[in-house]
Amino acid sequence: MDPVRLKQNFALVGANGMDVAEYFYADLFERDPALRGLFPSALAKQQEKLLAALSHIVGLVDDTPELVPFLQDLGRRHNGFGVVAGNYPTVGASLLATLAHFSGPEWNEELERDWTAAYQLVAQVMQEAAGLGNGAGSRA
Ligand code: HEM
């Protein structure tokens, strides 16, 4: 995984502002309509929180001592939101689809590999902290 490549790609994607989060949630609720009910009806605040968290995570992707406790807290907070292990791959698929969409012609296999590996790590640390099993690959 190349942290510089991830950061550059996230900067490119993030330049599209709230459109990114809107696209992500639209894709997520199309993949699994049951997830809509977990979120508040007005999504604007959630969209901002998601983008802020993602940009914090990407900024710390090469700083494990800072990143891990942040992800553990985030994962534990998700316990209260009705999230189960099986939701993590769905969210990962929507995240990848969103990044690919906004990367346009810049998207390639290396980025896909890097983002997949990064998301799996993030999801694993969050799920372990939440007591949802051993993370990547687990199903609920
Ligand atoms: C990379 C992984 C994820 C990130 C960065 C992320 C980020 C966030 C953030 C920042 C919040 C705001 C609340 C807080 O900070 O505690 C939040 C809330 C929430 N997330 Fe996630 N999340 C992730 C994975 C997931 C997954 C897999 C699901 C499953 C559907 C999910 C569903 C929710 C729900 C339902 C809320 C609460 C909405 C509300 O009631 O306000 N998240 N998430």
From TrEMBL:
Record bears the keyword Transport: yes
Q: Which residues form the signal peptide?
A: none
What InterPro entries would the database entry show? Globin (IPR000971), Globin-like_sf (IPR009050), Globin/Proto (IPR012292)
Q: Which top-rank group of organisms is this from?
A: Bacteria
Which Gene Ontology molecular-function terms are recorded? FAD binding; heme binding; metal ion binding; nitric oxide dioxygenase NAD(P)H activity; oxygen binding; oxygen carrier activity
Please provide the record's keywords in A-Z order: Heme, Iron, Metal-binding, Oxygen transport, Transport
Q: Which Gene3D superfamilies match?
A: Globins
Q: Where is the Globin domain?
A: 1-131
Output one GO BP term: cellular response to nitrosative stress
Family, as annotated: Belongs to the globin family.
Q: What is this protein called?
A: Bacterial hemoglobin
Q: Which organism was this protein described from? A: Actinomadura rubteroloni
From the UniProt record, report the name of the gene that encodes this protein.
vhb
